[in-house]
Every structure is written in structure tokens, then in C-alpha cells.
């Protein structure tokens, strides 16, 4: 036997299959292959579906029928908690009856919606049980026991189909492979019982206490049977209310076979295989494809989606601390605020998870409201309601209400994005539109169901109004294109459904019946386009009329005077002088004790350097600025952060990327003597022999000098655009603030210059700022200028001279460096064609500097590649 196995494994194809299985390729492909086969087999039967008719059939259901389906579906979902009562009793878990029910609801509904072979439910059960204090070994045993139990009920029902208690012969006849699938499912139960009674598996499932008792096994099988039986009854109830003349037992048989196909496919919720098999089975029973799809959608919505949405709320409630824990937090100095709605439920508004979950759900409800309005307008109303409405109102008013409903629906689709961003103005407009939508959708055809839904969403928004704190959000071209395209698609769907729905409705009307209450389908296109245009015109006007944000305002003269007063008594840094360019905004934090200079790039606020002011207030100032930026849905990043501030950034949630290193020359040790400085001495002596000279000019500068400097700058630029943000540019008012170093030729003509930038640190550090020279300047001109400037700075009492940053220097050198930093290292090594990174560092090395790293500090939620592109755009953009 072993020899045969070895020979079998020697074949290359077997080795390939085994390797693929070990890599989980086969396990991933199996459900995809099964799903593809089922869809391929059913594609021939699904081509003649009419979405308009399907939606029309949904609309015909009475509210009482919908309520009946909803309540029974919730009962079917509640039955699934019986699993948890079984393991609670057997493993004697210290969990209350209410908690057991909630845990079961959450785990099972999430498992239905998300699937993943039961891992979703198992993971949630483990989390919730642990939260209640159940020991880890008990949790493990319970989860392992429940995993194979869940299928036993379906296996038992499979026997009923094979025994023809519930018919399935038509499906087996058309698709014989389904019979083999049912036999495989049927034999699962006996195999499960044999395994449970074996000593090996019994000890495993029962924590080493021998085989599992028959009472526990039978109770678990009964729980599984209840789950699958109630699900089948829920499906059959939907079918019975939508379809007419289809036997109840035949509907249950279709469900059992479809559930088996969905389970074998291993897709979440059996989606795909279950759906196609259901549609095929119903069509074989003589059901029209449109009605079959109606049954499927109703079942999916009420049995899968609605219980799962309830589970989301339950999950949020489970994560919130208990009232006792809230009291402890409050007693320890933790503060929170409650609105009236939250006080009723004792839910503090500061819990981020709950707030995010609530806002996410509200935005989807607003989106659904817009779609409901469009769907309601696309499909004809119930004829008796239209007749009654015509007696109360005139036909033009009903048609006008119809058109306004479409416009409001499109606007709500767009505003749902603003709701997800917590924008206060979006909330106000949405509330108005929901109320107006409820009124107009009622007027157009007495559609009180849609009006009630809109009013419910409006009430939920109003009760949650405290969560909407943002004053605005960036509106980019990308956002406009996305939401513009979405509204076009939604409008197109409205037109398609409307034409299909009205066509089907007109065919169902008796001959010679007046259709004056219905719209001509040929006018749908014109009305749809006009509604789309009207919605966007209104939204554009609303957007343009929004108040100007303080975040956009550049500093005026008063702000500049305030800056001068601030740096007169507070330490600056190497980048402080750049603030006088006027292209950075100022945020004054901690009662004006800390200054944070920034510029906006798309949805980022990019801070130049570290916060200015007392270091012990920097962390609180950063948090204050983050809150300020969050009011506009913007992220805060720090550009050229220094090493001493990294712990402060880290504690505020920032990641780091090394930008390069700053070349700082200690002036105390700067000298031209020695063998290593021979090239610098040679350049200096040569310039002296050739009659060139160095001169330091002090402000204010006369017009003659400014014109000479401008001429040198224009020639040096050669038509290129100046860079800005962290670099100075030629701006006369800016140049008048600090000394300028000049290199003069023998005719006393300026051939090169460099403006200086003091660090405002009690005259300890000064930097090179704007550097320009003529193309025909002698070789070594900048060496000549730098040596004289550093000697001048040393004589003036400065301690350090900053030669500027060498970008990407010493980045990504270690094996464990970040992937992005390793990529930056390659750019540094081989990017000389574009920038000359290595050459720049090598040039600055001749002045024997001390290299100090500079970093980019950015939140974890920000994409580094995208941020890098935005920074490149920011630096290349000069603002006057």
C-alpha cells in the first residue's frame, strides 16, 4: 500500500495537485468552479427576465403581506439561537438567557450574510463568549463542536426530499448531478453521528471527558433541523404570497435542493449557486422568471439582510461598556456628553465604533431613500389610489409631484456621501429633502409606504444630529466625476425600469380603460434628463453659496505682524523664515501659545516643520489642530519633521517616512586649513586673482540691486516655474527681510547671489535660502560664496550654518527598512538623471557637515504613494 502511494506521488501531475492543495489554490477554486457550472447550466433559463415586471410584482404586495413575511423571517432568524442554548447547557457557561439569545443572533446572522465556511460565526462566538468570561478551552471546544453540527439539519431534510416527502424530481430530472449532491448531503448525518460516538473525536469535542452524551447530540441536531426547517418555511411563505397555485411542499423541496447546492459551493450565504438553483427550480414548477426573481429577492432581504442589520446594532451595543464601567470612567476623569436620545439608551456619543457604524448606516438609509423615490416614480402607482388622488388633486399637480420626486431622489443619492462624512450642511439639506420627498411622493399617488420610510429616515437623522459636526469637506474633480457618473447610472436605471414597468402595466389593463393617470413612456427620457440637470444645478448653487471656510484664508498684514511678535519671544526653527512668503496658513493653538503653519493639498493639511512654541504644549496643539482639520474631513501631515518631535507625533497616531538629511555645518570647527580643504582654498585664491569679490548686502535693498538680482534669477530659471512651500522664491518683499550674499565680477556686476534665512533661535542658526547664478559664472562660484558666507556667519556669532537638505539621503539602507524606503533608496542611487541626489549630497559633504534626518509624519489612514504625489504638486506650486 505504501509502495503504491509512493508511486502515485511520483507522478508530476499528482505532485502539482498536492502542491496546489497545500497552497489552498484547489480549496479556493472548488467553490468558483461549482458556481461557474451552476450559472452556466442556468444561463439559458434566465435570459428572458424582465426587471420592470419583477419590481411591479413587488409593488403589488400589500403592507400586511410584507409585515407577515418580515415577522416570520425574524422568527426564523431567532430560532438559530438554539445552537447557543445547547452549548450553554452542555458546557455550563456563565451566560444569561438574554445574552445567549443575542450572541446566537449575532453569530448566526453574520454567518448567513458573510459565510466563509462558518468562520464568521465561529469568530464572533469566540469574541462574545470571551467577553462574558467563558474560559478559552471551553470556547474552543464549543466552537469546534458547533461547526459540523450546523449541517445536520439540512442532511436530515435531504432524506425527506429523497423519500419524496418534499418533491424534487423535476430538478433531478433536468440536472441529474443535483441528485448525487442530495445523496452526499443525506449521508452526512450518519457519518456525523458515527464520528461523534467515536472515542477519539468524542474526547476532542467533549474536553477529554469521553464521548458526547446522546442528549447533547440529539439537541444539537434538533437545533440544526429547526434552523433549516424554519428557513425553508420562510422561503415557502414568500413563495406562497407572491405565487399562486404552486404547492407549498414543492416550494420547500426547491429550497432544500437549492440550499444544498449553495452549501456545496461554499460561497458566502450560498450566493450564486443557491440563487440560480432556486430560480431554475421555480421555473420548472411553471413560475415565470420575473416572479421567481421576486421570491428570491424578498427571501434574501427579509431572511438575510434585515436580521443582519439588527445584528449590527446588537454588536454595537455589546461593544459599548456597561453602565457601571461608564461610571468608573466618569469617576476617573473621563468625560462624555449625551444628547436626549442617547440618554434614553445610556449610549455615550464618544464611542468611535458606534458613531462610525451609525453614520455609515444613516448614509446608506439616505441612499436607499433616494433610490426608493426613484423606484416609486419609475413604477406606476396602484390604480385605485391614483383614481382617489385624482379626485382630491388635479392631474398637473400629481405630475409635478412626480417630477419633483425624481429630482429629490437624485439629490439624495449624492447627499448620502455628505452624510457619511458627517457634514452639518448636508444633514440640513437632507432633512429638508426627505420631508419634501415624503410630501411629494404621497401627492403623486398616495404612496404612504414610501412617505413613511422617508419620514422614518428623517427622524433617525434628526435624533443623530449631534454626530454631524463637520463644516465641510474637499470637493475634488475625482469626487465630482464619481458622483456625477453615479447619478447618470441611477437616472439610466430609472428610465429602464420606468419604461419596462409601465409597458408591463399597460399590457395588464383591460381594453379601453383610460390611462390618463399614467405617464407616456416616451416622455420618460426627457423627464429623466431634465430631472438630472435640475438636481445638479440646485446642488451646484448650494455648494457655491456655502460660507467661505477659515481654512482657506491666507495670512494678511495683521497676521504677519502677529507672527513677528510671536517669534520675538518664542524659538523658531530652520523653516520659520519661509512663513514670510505668505503661502502658508496659520493655526494658533493652545490659546495662541503654539503656531502650526500649513498649506492645503487636496484633502491634506501639510504642516511645514514642527509646531512653533513650547515643546510641552506641542502634543495638545497637534490634537487641537487634528480636531480642527477633521471638521473639514481633512488629514494632517507634518513635512520635514525633526527627530526630537518624533515621540510626540508617534503618540498622536503618526507613521514616519524618512525624507532625507539636513546638512548642518558646526561653524566653530569650520576652517579652510588642512589637506581636506585644499579644493576650497584653491577656488578662493583663484577668484581673488581673477578680481572677483564677495559682498554681504543688508536690507533695505535699493531698486538697482533688486533689478540686478532679478536679472540673474530670470536667466537662472530659463523659463522654468519656481518651486515653493518649503523653498523660497524670488519675491521682493520676502528678500527684503534678511541679508543677501553677493558674488561680484571685476566690473562689480552681480554674477551670483544667495539669500539667507535666520532660524529665529537667538541667532544660533542661519540657512541658505534662495541661490541663483549666471550660466557663464566661473566654475566654483558657489564654493566661493559658501565659504565666505560661513565665515561671515561665524563672525556674526552664529553657531550652525544650514546648507539645506539632501533628499533621500541615507534612506532605506538596512534590510528591515520599509518597502517604500527601499524604493526611495533605488531612486537616490539611480535617479541622478532627473535630480542628481547623490551628487547633491557629495557636494555638501565637502563642507564637513553633521547630517540630521528629516521625516514625513503621516496618519496610518493616508496612502503614502498618493501623499508623495500630492507633496510634489504642493512644492511645485508657487503662490504669490
TrEMBL record:
Its EC number is 2.3.2.3. It is found in: Cell membrane. Residues 567-858 form the Phosphatidylglycerol lysyltransferase C-terminal domain. It is a multi-pass membrane protein. The keyword 4Fe-4S does not apply. Keywords: Antibiotic resistance, Cell membrane, Lipid metabolism, Membrane, Transferase, Transmembrane, Transmembrane helix. It is an enzyme of class 2 (transferase). It holds the Pfam family LPG_synthase_TM. It comes from the Bacteria. InterPro entries: Acyl_CoA_acyltransferase, L-PG_synthase/AglD, LPG_synthase_C, PG_lysyltransferase. The chain crosses the membrane at residues 25-43, 64-83, 103-124, 136-157, 177-195, 216-240, 246-264, 301-320, 365-386, 392-414, 426-445, 480-504, 524-544. The keyword Transmembrane helix applies. PANTHER family: PHOSPHATIDYLGLYCEROL LYSYLTRANSFERASE. Belongs to the LPG synthase family. Catalyzes the transfer of a lysyl group from L-lysyl-tRNA(Lys) to membrane-bound phosphatidylglycerol (PG), which produces lysylphosphatidylglycerol (LPG), a major component of the bacterial membrane with a positive net charge. LPG synthesis contributes to bacterial virulence as it is involved in the resistance mechanism against cationic antimicrobial peptides (CAMP) produces by the host's immune system (defensins, cathelicidins) and by the competing microorganisms. This is Phosphatidylglycerol lysyltransferase.
Amino acid at each position: 500500500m505504501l509502495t503504491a502511494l509512493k508511486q502515485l506521488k511520483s507522478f508530476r501531475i499528482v505532485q502539482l495537485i498536492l502542491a496546489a492543495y497545500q497552497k489552498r489554490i484547489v480549496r479556493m477554486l472548488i467553490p468558483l468552479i461549482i458556481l461557474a457550472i451552476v450559472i452556466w447550466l442556468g444561463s439559458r433559463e434566465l435570459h428572458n427576465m424582465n426587471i420592470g415586471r419583477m419590481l411591479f410584482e413587488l409593488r403589488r404586495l400589500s403592507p400586511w403581506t410584507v409585515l407577515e413575511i418580515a415577522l416570520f423571517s425574524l422568527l426564523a432568524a431567532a430560532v438559530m439561537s438554539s445552537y447557543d442554548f445547547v452549548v450553554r447547557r452542555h458546557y455550563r457557561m456563565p451566560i444569561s438567557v438574554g445574552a445567549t439569545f443575542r450572541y446566537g443572533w449575532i453569530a448566526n446572522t453574520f454567518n448567513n450574510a458573510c459565510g466563509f465556511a462558518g468562520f464568521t460565526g465561529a469568530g464572533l462566538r469566540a469574541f462574545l463568549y470571551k467577553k462574558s468570561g467563558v474560559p478559552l478551552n471551553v470556547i474552543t471546544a464549543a466552537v469546534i463542536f458547533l461547526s459540523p453540527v450546523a449541517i445536520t439539519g439540512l442532511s436530515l431534510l435531504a432524506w425527506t426530499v429523497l423519500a419524496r416527502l418534499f418533491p424534487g424530481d423535476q430538478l433531478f430530472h433536468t440536472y441529474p448531478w443535483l441528485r448525487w449532491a442530495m445523496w452526499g448531503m443525506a449521508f452526512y448525518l450518519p457519518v456525523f453521528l458515527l464520528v461523534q460516538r467515536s472515542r477519539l473525536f468524542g474526547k476532542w469535542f467533549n474536553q477529554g471527558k469521553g464521548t458526547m452524551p446522546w442528549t447533547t447530540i440529539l439537541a444539537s441536531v434538533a437545533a440544526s433541523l429547526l434552523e433549516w426547517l424554519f428557513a425553508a418555511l420562510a422561503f415557502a411563505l414568500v413563495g406562497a404570497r407572491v405565487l399562486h397555485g404552486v404547492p407549498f411542499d414543492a416550494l420547500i423541496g426547491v429550497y432544500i435542493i437549492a440550499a444544498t447546492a449553495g452549501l456545496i459551493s461554499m460561497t458566502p450565504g450560498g450566493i450564486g449557486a443557491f440563487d440560480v438553483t432556486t430560480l431554475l427550480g421555480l421555473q420548472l414548477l411553471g413560475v415565470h422568471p420575473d416572479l421567481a426573481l421576486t421570491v428570491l429577492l424578498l427571501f434574501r432581504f427579509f431572511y438575510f439582510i434585515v436580521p443582519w442589520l439588527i445584528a449590527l446594532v446588537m454588536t454595537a451595543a455589546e461593544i459599548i461598556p456597561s453602565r457601571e464601567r461608564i461610571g468608573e470612567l466618569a469617576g476617573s476623569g473621563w468625560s462624555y456628553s449625551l444628547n436626549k436620545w442617547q440618554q434614553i439608551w445610556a449610549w455615550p456619543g464618544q464611542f468611535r465604533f458606534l458613531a462610525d457604524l451609525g453614520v455609515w448606516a444613516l448614509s446608506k438609509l439616505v441612499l436607499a431613500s433616494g433610490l426608493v423615490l426613484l423606484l416609486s416614480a419609475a413604477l406606476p402607482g396602484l390604480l385605485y389610489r391614483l383614481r382617489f388622488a385624482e379626485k382630491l388633486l388635479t392631474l398637473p399637480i400629481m405630475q409635478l409631484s412626480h417630477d419633483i420626486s425624481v429630482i429629490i431622489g437624485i439629490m439624495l443619492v449624492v447627499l448620502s456621501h455628505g452624510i457619511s462624512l458627517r457634514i452639518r450642511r448636508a444633514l440640513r439639506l437632507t432633512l429638508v429633502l426627505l420631508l419634501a420627498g415624503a410630501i411629494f411622493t404621497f401627492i403623486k399617488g398616495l404612496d404612504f409606504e414610501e412617505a413613511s420610510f422617508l419620514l422614518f429616515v428623517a427622524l433617525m437623522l434628526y435624533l443623530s444630529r449631534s454626530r454631524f459636526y463637520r463644516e465641510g469637506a474637499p470637493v475634488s474633480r475625482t469626487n465630482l466625476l464619481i458622483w456625477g457618473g453615479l447619478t447618470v447610472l441611477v437616472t439610466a436605471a430609472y428610465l429602464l425600469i420606468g419604461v419596462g414597468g409601465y409597458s408591463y402595466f399597460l399590457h395588464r389593463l383591460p381594453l379601453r380603460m383610460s390611462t390618463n393617470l399614467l405617464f407616456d413612456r416616451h416622455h420618460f427620457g426627457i423627464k429623466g434628463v431634465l430631472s438630472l440637470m435640475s438636481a445638479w444645478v440646485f446642488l451646484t448653487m448650494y455648494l457655491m453659496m456655502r460660507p467661505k471656510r477659515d481654512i482657506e484664508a491666507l495670512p494678511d498684514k495683521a497676521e504677519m505682524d502677529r507672527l513677528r511678535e510671536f517669534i520675538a519671544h518664542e524659538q523658531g526653527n530652520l523653516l520659520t523664515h519661509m512663513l514670510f512668503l505668505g503661502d502658508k496658513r496659520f493655526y494658533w493653538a493652545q490659546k495662541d501659545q503654539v503656531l502650526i503653519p500649513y498649506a492645503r493639498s487636496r484633502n491634506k493639511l501639510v504642516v511645514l516643520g514642527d509646531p512653533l512654541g513650547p515643546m510641552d504644549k506641542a502634543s495638545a496643539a497637534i490634537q487641537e489642530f487634528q480636531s480642527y482639520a477633521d471638521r473639514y474631513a481633512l488629514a494632517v501631515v507634518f513635512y520635514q519633521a525633526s527627530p526630537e518631535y518624533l515621540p510626540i507625533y508617534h503618540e498622536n497616531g503618526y507613521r514616519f517616512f524618512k525624507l532625507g538629511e539636513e546638512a548642518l555645518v558646526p561653524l566653530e570647527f569650520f576652517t579652510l586649513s588642512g589637506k581636506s580643504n585644499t579644493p576650497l582654498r584653491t577656488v578662493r585664491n583663484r577668484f581673488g586673482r581673477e578680481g572677483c569679490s564677495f559682498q554681504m548686502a543688508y536690507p533695505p535693498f535699493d531698486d538697482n540691486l533688486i533689478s540686478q538680482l532679478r536679472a540673474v534669477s530670470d536667466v537662472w530659471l530659463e523659463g522654468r516655474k519656481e518651486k515653493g512651500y518649503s523653498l523660497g522664491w524670488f519675491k521682493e518683499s520676502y528678500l527684503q527681510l534678511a541679508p543677501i550674499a553677493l558674488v561680484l565680477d571685476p566690473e562689480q556686476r552681480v554674477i551670483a547671489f544667495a539669500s539667507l534665512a535666520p532660524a529665529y533661535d537667538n541667532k544660533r542658526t542661519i540657512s541658505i535660502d534662495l541661490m541663483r547664478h549666471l550660466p557663464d559664472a566661473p566654475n566654483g562660484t558657489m564654493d566661493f560664496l559658501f565659504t565666505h558666507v560661513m565665515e561671515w556667519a561665524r563672525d556674526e556669532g552664529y553657531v550652525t550654518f544650514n546648507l539645506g537638505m539632501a533628499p533621500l539621503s541615507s534612506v532605506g539602507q538596512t534590510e528591515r527598512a520599509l518597502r517604500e524606503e527601499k524604493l526611495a533608496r533605488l531612486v537616490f542611487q539611480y535617479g541622478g538623471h532627473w535630480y542628481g541626489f547623490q551628487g547633491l549630497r557629495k557636494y555638501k559633504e565637502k563642507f564637513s557637515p553633521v547630517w540630521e534626518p528629516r521625516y514625513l509624519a503621516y496618519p496610518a489612514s493616508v496612502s503614502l504613494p498618493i501623499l508623495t504625489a500630492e507633496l510634489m504638486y504642493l512644492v511645485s506650486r508657487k503662490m504669490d
